[in-house]
Automatic annotation (TrEMBL):
This is YifB family Mg chelatase-like AAA ATPase. Transmembrane segments: none annotated. It comes from the Bacteria. Keywords: ATP-binding, Nucleotide-binding. SUPFAM superfamilies: P-loop containing nucleoside triphosphate hydrolases, Ribosomal protein S5 domain 2-like. Belongs to the Mg-chelatase subunits D/I family. ComM subfamily. Pfam families: ChlI, Mg_chelatase, Mg_chelatase_C. InterPro entries: AAA+_ATPase, CHLI-like, MCM_dom, Mg_chelat-rel, Mg_chelat-rel_C, Mg_chelatse_chII-like_cat_dom, P-loop_NTPase, Ribosomal_Su5_D2-typ_SF. Residues 212-394 form the AAA+ ATPase domain. GO terms for molecular function: ATP binding; DNA binding. The lineage of its organism: Bacteria, Pseudomonadati, Bacteroidota, Sphingobacteriia, Sphingobacteriales.
Amino acid sequence: MAATVYSAAVMGIDAELITVETRISPGVQYFIIGLPGESVKESLFRVESAIESAGLHMPRQKVLINMGPAGLRKEGAGFDLPIAISILAASGQLDLDLDKTLFAGELSLNGYLRPVRGAIAITLKARKAGFDTLILPTENSPEAAIVSGIKVYGLATLQEVIACLRRPSDFELSLPPTGKEKVGIQPLPKLDFADISGQQKIKRAMEISAAGGHNILLIGPPGSGKTMIANRLPGIMPKLTTEEALETTKIYSVASRSDQVFFESCRPFRKPHHTASDIAMVGGGSPLMPGEISLAHNGILFLDELPEFRKAVLESLRQPLEAKTITISRASYNADLPADFLLAAAMNPCPCGYFKHPGRKCSCSPESIRRYLQKISGPLLDRIDLQVKVPPVAYTAQQPILKIDTSATIAKRVLTTLERQIRRQGVQNASLAPELIKKHCSLAPAEHELFLTVLQKHQLSARSHDRILKVARTIADMAGSENIGLLHLSEAISLRCLDQDYFQ
Ligand SMILES: [Zn+2]
């Protein structure tokens, strides 16, 4: 007697279809073949105990389980449920059509279902492969139910699964999270730009960053409010689109963070500590877990105290900053994870923090300052369009400001500017390819002349040239201007302080 049951395995952030075939014949031994990992080999012990807890019986015959495709290593305990169902079907204890149902779930010895990782990826795969029903553990069902077009049952025990297969009408379909659960990651305390008086130039730089998708580095002495300002960046970015929300939630679901659902929420905001390892930052391990840069996908990665991060960790950001994905290769897998994030970073100008401070003396040697700044120089800096000097709070002009913009007001402007860019060129200004920079960021002869003079005077590189043009394009877009004017250009130049003030 034989039966085939379907499941799925998470690979990277997607899932692959897995078949579980069981053949029962005279004999006494149990086997699993088809490249099972250790946890899958142990599955039979859990399955036997769970089947008996459910009041059914494990056949005292030769039970051969073949998992396909044979070339793919199967890891994790999520195949317990499909293996159990397959054994019950092959032994004639479950005489049902199982071709349109996909199963995933770990079993405890007494038959309870335990959650699996990557339920959204599994559900998307099931739908794509034409299954009409998905059965998985209760804990996973709200995230799975986010995916429309497939029936999802979240169940608590093997017994319930059997009952549900026999009479689905007795069970309710799972629903996506609603109401209070529908919050974003790390539900941000009500952080608003209106709480910050002064620092107009920095707030403006944050708005430019959010509107054009420009990576930003804030550089200034301790206590100047860099972190406070950066923490408010998510509040001015446009909300996630439905597609982005599904993509981001899928990554969290693979990372076993299914409590994080991103619908109708602000963008993810990740703030790893500077002691983070490169695996924590870019992902890896076995099973493969997404790193901070993938958890920040469609959102913001904020690196406070940038030069304190390990050099290797900072270097590992170069590929994803350019490609917006990260390729992770290990002996057992090869995966591309999405990593399209806005990089925001903050740093002191020197180890003591007071280099070029208007009122305090820096105690660092020129050599130690050079070493400190060099930690982030080069290719990484090249990918940061905005490098903004944050003045100490006491020294910012405290003009009486009649009205301070709230984050909501700024967010509205950011959205308008974003839509303008998408209409014109399909991408944000920061992502413009070189040939499109020529097309969309051209300067009139007078502006061009001045630009070249400034570049020469500050010995700015060819890369800086393009970066400044893209930022000027965003500033012009914020002003609703077709062309990049002198004012837009000079403001963009003033937002490259590292080139001009520190690395000379
Ligand atoms: Zn110093």
